[in-house]
Predict the 3D structure of the following.
Amino acid sequence: MIAFVLAAALSVPAKAGDAAALYQTRCSSCHGLNMQGGPQGPSLINADAADLDFMLQTGRMPAERTWEQEVRKPPSFTHTQISELVAYVMKKSSGDQSLPAIHSGGDLGSGRIVYAENCAQCHSATGKGNNIAYRNVAPSMMDSTPLEVAEAVRSGPDVMPKFGPRVIDQKHLDDLLAYVRWLQAGKYNAGGFSLSNWGPISEGFIAWVAGIALLVFLARRIGTTD
Ligand code: HEC
Ligand code: HEC
């Protein structure tokens, strides 16, 4: 009997077993043993490989708190474990099985237009992020790898829209990646006072504080002259 159980355990291919064990210990409490979802997390049976890979590579999953916007963290798994986990979940998912293709050598000028039209309103012109609504922050993409950028574009995490190939085709995606690379190298300068490039959230805050100070000053002046 013991020998039989042992033989059965040994006959499971080591890799699939590892991914299954990882899924059970690190994902199933929220996404369900059969990836059906539940009160703690959505179903993964239609998840795309790009979405899964993005969530794991950027450390968003496993989540720490449920139904909160996840933030970028160091990944919990090695690259090999991530690709095995993605393959394991994708065996049950009816979503898109392939990761987005990416090529170097995109056109900067064209990428700048794609970025301005589709991304800047949320991520700001610098790519350093912005506050779009209560608790929904479009984060900085300064640390994103080209593959992660392409995965975010194709899978639309959280409230970010999903940009399919009919909106941004492969050539424009490669152009966009070239432009994001350029932003990451710190080559964008919006002009005017940069306030040490602290980014739009703090710059907005500084403008607000300075604006209030000016209003108080004006109000006091008006008050004393009559
Ligand atoms: C503590 C609960 C929890 C754990 C553990 C967890 N998740 Fe999640 N997951 C969530 C919630 C809640 C969401 C919904 C979006 C959010 O909160 O960011 C989510 C979203 C996702 C998404 C995006 C699905 C979609 O519809 O957009 C993927 C893919 C995912 N999780 C994969 C995983 C994998 C793989 C693991 C294990 C390594 C894991 N998650 C562990 C709670 C969890
Ligand atoms: C409606 C606002 C919105 C638009 C438009 C948008 N995004 Fe996003 N983006 C977000 C939000 C919100 C997140 C965070 C998602 C999460 O936390 O799961 C995000 C996440 C990302 C990330 C992940 C960064 C990280 O922290 O790892 C990248 C990369 C990214 N977006 C690139 C883009 C690009 C490129 C475009 C244009 C094609 C774009 N986004 C358009 C809102 C937006």
Summary: The two ends are 99 Å apart (CA to CA). Residues 1-14 have pLDDT under 50 and may be disordered. The chain has ten helices and two strands.
